[in-house]
Write a structure and sequence with these properties.
Elements: H1 6-10, H2 20-49, H3 54-72, H4 93-102, H5 104-139, H6 141-148, E1 152-154, E2 158-160, H7 163-199, H8 202-256, H9 261-287, H10 290-295, H11 297-307, E3 312-315, H12 324-345, E4 350-357, E5 360-367, H13 381-389, E6 394-398, E7 405-412, E8 431-432
Length: about 425
């Protein structure tokens, strides 16, 4: 695996012959180049801040330096450092400043700017002077002795008066350079890790990405539900009405036609149109039942129980109106569970309970069948769990061999406010199908 940081490269035997020592030196050297101007700017702004003018400028300087330092990290860290700042909701400088002042990232950048201007760049300079300056001074001894002609004082302590001594100092400088490349890389790696921790913490990146994914999934669910409702309306107001008109026309023509082959053909067409209309109504109901949109989840669950092939006892009183995506997910979860009960469980009866409390919708569907429900067998439970996961919901199945099977759905949500001046939506009462 290709090293991504100096710390990873340090474990390689050929580290001194790679580019990483020079990347480390370049990172520390550019730290000095940015640290000196940062110190000067900090001193100037501190003077201005005495009259409460420089405080906003100090924060802005920290933000600017933070952006520069995140780019400079690429010298020794090949993984990009993401910008931790949020995009303001409104345009303009005032909105941008309000967001920045309230962000933790802004204050971390300000702390880093102070630390960089006062501590880090002098430390970078000292490390470079020791790791590169001392070996360079030793290796330059022969050249300096040739220029001077008599004697040379190396690193202010070692007096060289002959060429054997000068070449010995140069050899020592080479050995010392190779040895000091390791602590140089380690310090650069530590320095980069500190910068990333303050300027682009990975946990913040993960939280931001998870938040973005969650928000995008929620938007997709909302868009999907809106598209389902649009298709349902188009079919209900368009194709279904045309089929109703066609069925009525065929029925009238059938009554007016004299007995014979024509009347038989009209009767056949009338019956076929009726079957197509029934199938279309079932399709519309499966896409998005009108009872769910008009009366809420309680009525829709009772309607689903009435349609079940297995008698279902329902207890769904008192459900408030919930967000559309939550009601839709709860409804289709129940439909899928009841369909599985009718197809696979060999149950004689089923029960359905739905409650809202503690800011969560909880639905439980049980049956007295043979059990052994397995999502891996393609019963639609896996897709159902994925649908609930988009809403941070959970699906729990208890189905030992021999039964009973209990499926529990829990979706965190908040009820919708009731429209002022209107009565509460109709809820479904407990019922039992014989």
């Amino acid at each position: 695996m290709t090293p991504r940081t100096p710390w990873q490269a340090l474990t390689r035997a050929r580290y001194p012959r790679t580019v990483w020592p020079w990347r480390a030196a370049g990172y520390l050297g550019t730290g000095v180049l940015t640290g000196v101007p940062a110190l000067l700017v900090l001193l100037v702004l501190v003077v201005f801040s005495l009259v409460l003018v420089g405080l906003p400028l100090l924060l802005l300087a920290g933000v600017a330096l933070g952006g520069l330092e995140r780019r400079r990290l690429r010298i020794v860290d090949l993984d990009p450092a993401a910008d931790p700042h949020r995009i303001p909701d409104a345009p303009g400088l005032a909105a941008w400043l309000r967001v920045r002042v309230r962000e933790q990232a802004t204050w971390r950048e300000f702390a880093y700017a102070v630390l960089h201007a006062t501590v880090l760049w002098p430390l970078d300079l000292i490390v470079l002077a020791v790791a590169l300056g001392v070996p360079a001074a030793l290796m330059s001894a022969p050249v300096r002795l040739a220029v001077d002609g008599h004697e040379v004082k190396v690193v202010k302590a070692y007096l060289v008066t002959s060429y054997p001594q000068a070449f010995a100092a140069a050899l020592l400088g080479v050995v010392l350079l190779v040895a000091l490349l390791y602590p140089l890389g380690a310090l650069a790696g530590a320095r980069a890790a500190l910068s990333r921790a303050l300027l682009a913490p990975r946990d913040a990146e993960l939280r931001e990405r998870i938040g973005e994914v969650t928000a995008s999934r929620a938007r997709l669910v909302d868009a999907f539900e809106a598209e389902r409702r649009r298709i349902e309306r188009d079919l209900h107001d368009g194709a279904q009405q045309r089929l109703v008109a066609l069925t009525m026309t065929l029925g009238i023509a059938r009554l007016d036609a004299p007995a014979g082959p024509l009347a038989d053909r009209l009767a056949q067409a009338h019956d076929e149109a009726g079957r197509v209309l029934t199938e279309l109504r079932e399709l519309i109901h499966g896409i998005h039942p009108q009872v769910l949109a008009d009366y809420g989840l309680g009525a829709a669950l009772t309607d689903a129980a009435d349609r079940s092939a297995v008698p279902v006892t329902t207890d769904v009183d008192g459900l408030p109106r919930l967000p559309t995506a939550v009601e839709s997910a709860g409804y289709f979860a129940v439909c899928e569970a009841l369909a599985n009960i009718g197809k696979h469980s060999r149950a004689g009866r089923a029960r359905l309970t739905a409650r809202y409390g503690s800011e969560a919708l909880r639905i439980e569907i049980g049956d007295d069948g043979r059990g052994g429900a397995d999502p891996a067998r393609g019963t639609g439970l896996t897709g159902l769990a994925d649908r609930l996961a988009v809403l941070d919901g959970t699906l729990t199945i208890t189905s030992p061999p021999g039964g009973p099977t209990v499926l529990r759905v829990e979706i965190p949500c908040r009820p919708l406010p009731e429209p002022s001046g209107s009565s509460s939506p109709r809820t479904a009462s407990s019922s039992a199908r014989a």
